[in-house]
Q: What sequence folds into this?
């Protein structure tokens, strides 16, 4: 066995897997699996649960450390809750703690965890996250892709916050970085708006 998976079974939408693709240690000669039932409308408990899963993986050195894929999976859960800057910064802190690289996929997922707090997401990008992205993506092509993904995450947050003014500033920032905003960029903003409506109607 060369993989460790943490599965969270969702009664409404099938299952969500939090997997560590870099796992290579034998744990008691068996595959370690944790099945935890929950319902998506239990937003507070869900955020707490996903954070606890990360804490467990980080704490016990007999388990493989969580990687970028693990954090993206956790972020994909948290973005569908009433998340805010506390959620986003907490996830970022844990990622830095275990040495997860700030690649585009993770940054896109991270910013979605800021919920409607677009100003805090922008502040995190300007003060911390952008420098991490540049440091962790040495190749020019990887850096450009990661920057593009990060900005799309910020556009999603702007849509969820109903901030077209902020989205316009993000587009200008993208152009300054040498990136070309596309239809996909606009779709990220619109997807954020749709998520806001969905969460509002659910609540």
A:
């Amino acid at each position: 066995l060369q993989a460790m998976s943490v599965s969270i079974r969702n009664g409404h939408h099938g299952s969500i897997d939090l997997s560590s693709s870099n796992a290579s240690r034998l744990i008691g000669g068996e595959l370690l699996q944790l099945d935890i039932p929950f319902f998506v409308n239990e937003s507070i408990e869900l955020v707490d649960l996903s954070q606890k899963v990360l804490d467990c993986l980080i704490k016990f050195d007999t388990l493989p450390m969580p990687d970028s894929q693990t954090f993206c999976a956790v972020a994909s859960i948290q973005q569908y809750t009433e998340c805010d800057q506390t959620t986003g910064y907490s996830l970022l802190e844990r990622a830095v703690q275990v040495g997860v690289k700030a690649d585009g996929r993770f940054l896109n997922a991270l910013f979605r965890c800021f919920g409607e707090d677009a100003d805090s997401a922008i502040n995190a990008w300007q003060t911390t996250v952008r420098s991490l992205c540049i440091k962790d993506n040495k190749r020019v092509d990887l850096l450009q892709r990661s920057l593009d993904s990060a900005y799309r995450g910020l556009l999603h947050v702007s849509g969820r916050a109903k901030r077209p003014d902020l989205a316009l500033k993000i587009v200008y920032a993208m152009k300054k970085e040498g990136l070309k905003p596309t239809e996909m960029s606009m779709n990220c903003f619109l997807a954020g708006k749709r998520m806001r409506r969905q969460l509002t109607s659910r609540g």
Q: What stands out?
A: The two ends are 42 Å apart (CA to CA). Helices lie at 43-59, 68-78, 85-98, 104-112, 118-136, 140-160, 164-176, 183-202. Confidence is low (pLDDT under 50) at residues 1-47.
